[in-house]
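> call design_seq(struct)
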């Protein structure tokens, strides 16, 4: 039987996992298994009262909203796109930083009429173009957005940009900034009340670690 005071933290593999583990370590939380080596989806930690669940980045808000995880770590891009609207977002971890941008081919010709936009950020792209009063057809993709304008699927893309190397390698350039992106700690609303002390203690320690310059 799981202790009712156990904290479950939802996190995705990859860059968020890599960048957030040193921050969780400041709260005494270190994973006892490596999710890249293990097929386990529930990872115990050095704290008996804390466990990690390893899920897809886009699923983190859903697990936290439904209370299957008390806390989660998710990119602001994912949160903007998510329909989970009853979460607390108390902490900007300043990790996995990038920019959500529009990008188009270097040789793009001026387009008249409806713009075709390929993106995995359909909701945010729809909001962005509507706000600008631009008629846009949004084509939902799940990755490799840079390809879409090169093969005539779309006029432009909406994607995250960090170094700009991926755009450059594909003959695209970043045009308009939609939002600065970083990862946030998110908290289930009921957990925040029921596990107040444990969650506040964790948030305080992680917040302090975020502010320290990297060693
Ligand atoms: P999935 O593979 O499950 O679709 P994903 O590819 O979005 O998810 P990651 O690539 O690990 O997962 O990215 C996680 C988060 O890191 C993103 O939501 C975004 O906030 C941020 N991110 C994405 N690409 C970059 C990048 N090139 N540089 C910095 N941060 C990034
Ligand atoms: C992300 C994003 C871009 C790239 C941008 O892809 O979708 O392709 O990073 O980074 P850059 O500006 O530094 O080149 P990611 O590396 O996450 O690959 P994936 O989306 O295919 O998983």
């Amino acid at each position: 039987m799981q202790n009712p005071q156990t904290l479950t933290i939802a996190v995705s593999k990859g860059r968020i996992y890599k960048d957030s583990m040193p921050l969780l370590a400041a709260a005494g939380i270190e994973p006892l298994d490596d999710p890249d080596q293990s097929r386990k989806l529930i990872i115990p930690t050095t704290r008996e009262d804390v466990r990690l669940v390893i899920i897809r980045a886009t699923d983190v808000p859903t697990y936290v909203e439904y209370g299957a995880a008390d806390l989660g770590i998710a990119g602001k891009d994912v949160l903007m796109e998510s329909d989970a609207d009853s979460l607390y977002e108390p902490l900007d971890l300043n990790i996995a930083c990038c920019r959500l941008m529009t990008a188009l081919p270097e040789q793009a010709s001026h387009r008249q009429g409806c713009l075709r936009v390929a993106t995995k950020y359909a909701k945010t792209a729809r909001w962005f173009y509507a706000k600008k009063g631009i008629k846009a057809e949004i084509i939902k993709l799940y990755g490799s957005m840079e390809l879409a304008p090169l093969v005539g699927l779309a006029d432009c893309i909406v994607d995250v940009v960090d170094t700009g190397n991926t755009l450059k390698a594909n003959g695209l350039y970043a045009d308009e900034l939609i939002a600065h992106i970083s990862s946030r700690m998110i908290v289930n609303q009921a957990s925040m009340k029921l596990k107040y002390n444990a969650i506040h203690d964790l948030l305080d320690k992680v917040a302090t670690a975020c502010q320290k310059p990297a060693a």
